[in-house]
Amino acid sequence: MKIVVIGGTGLIGSKLVTKLKQHGHEAVAASPKSGVNAVTGEGLAAVLAGADVVVDVANAPSWEPAAVLDFFQRSSTNLVAAEAAAGVKHHVALSIVGTERSPDNSYFRAKLAQETIIKSSSVPYSIVRATQFFEFLGAIAETAVVEGKIVVPSALFQPIAAEDVADRLAEVAMGRPLNGTIDIAGPEKAPFYEFIARRLKASGDARPVVGDPKAPYYGAPIDDTSLNPLGEARLGKTPLATWLARL
To answer: Domain NAD(P)-binding, which positions (predicted)?
Structure first.
């Protein structure tokens, strides 16, 4: 199949393109660098010509509330319209576990808007909601520095390795459209602060990590249900210890 990966040069997209090629598919990495801009529509018709599947893993360049909402609404609207015109048979989108459970998180609201556009399109679809990636644990810690300490939520957390996300996306992209949503998560669940502390320790960072039930996650309060699958989920195979050993 010809599978176009929107955001195909990023963290997830680049891994996904490699995996799809290994399975014998024609995987095309599409991004503004290659002349394809889903927000403006530039290059979409050309890259989607003859495409069987489109996988959207693009990320917004700005997380400012109005900007991130505009990015996902415009890019998704343009994508599904171009897919319908090109006869694309399957739209796969990467979203976030718990989008509907964190209304105070502007990024989650934007992803929920994206999901709504996909569901209302005529193109068969699959939405893959993932938990947070191991790769971003360090960056999350840096947003939570308070007087030399890292103060993060104590709520339960179930992050996943980017490699496992790409594996699950490849499986879905090569299969039949679900016309529904699935959750994917890491194999381990523990308090948020434990994952952050292990990540910092592995990099030699001695700053203390404190779990606080009132600490926000990107500006929004969370609890044990906010960021984790509540029902059935496909779990990644990589535990944090294995991922940390590769740093």
So the answer is: 7-172
SS3 annotation, the chain: CEEEEECCCCHHHHHHHHHHHHCCCEEEEECHHHCCECCCCECHHHHHCCCCEEEECCCCCCCCHHHHHHHHHHHHHHHHHHHHHHCCCEEEEEEECCHHHCCCCHHHHHHHHHHHHHHCCCCCEEEEEECCEHHHHHHHHHCCEECCEEEECCCEECCECHHHHHHHHHHHHHCCCCCEEEEEECCCCEEHHHHHHHHHHHCCCCCCEEECCCCCECCECCCCCCCCCCCCCEECCCCHHHHHHCC
Whole-number Å distance between alpha carbons of 90 and 80: 10
Confidence at residue 104, expressed as pLDDT on a 0 to 100 scale = 86
- So what's the pLDDT on residue 219? 84
Residue 176: pLDDT above 90? yes
